[in-house]
Amino acid sequence: MSKRLTISEVAKAAGIPISTLRYYERIGLVEPEDRSFGNYRLYSDHSLKKLKFIRAAQAIGFTLEDVKSLLADGEGKAPTCGNVQDLIEARLTDVEERLKDLRHVRKVLKSALDQCQGQEQTKCCHVVKELKAL
């Protein structure tokens, strides 16, 4: 039998706050495998691996809904490549949109910096003045 971890131990090992683990429980991503005599939640190595999987999936852009799909299909089986491909394509589209937005922000900030560098350093910053006017 594998070692059972308390909620604080498994959260620390997974690198997440306890509140996040409790949230994952509420939405059905993980659940304690057991309870102690004092009714404390107890988790196995399997839960720790699942939490690390969730963190890794989120780090590359998957939502928690996506993670639910990645963990199992409606029948509790591993998802097919076709299902995963659809999720990847959707996340890639999101990333492309965010990159487009970030390129625009970069362009605006570079322009503002160029204007600031061309202005006398002791004068009121036109960028701050324009932001205050919004």
UniProtKB/TrEMBL annotation:
The keyword Repressor applies. It comes from the Bacteria. One of its GO terms (molecular function) is DNA binding. InterPro entries: DNA-bd_dom_put_sf (IPR009061), MerR-type_HTH_dom (IPR000551), MerR_fam (IPR047057). Pfam families: MerR_1. Keywords: DNA-binding, Repressor, Transcription, Transcription regulation. The keyword Disulfide bond does not apply. Residues 4-73 form the HTH merR-type domain. PANTHER family: MERR-FAMILY TRANSCRIPTIONAL REGULATOR, REDOX-CYCLING DRUG-SENSING TRANSCRIPTIONAL ACTIVATOR SOXR. This is HTH-type transcriptional regulator ZntR. It comes from Thalassoglobus polymorphus.
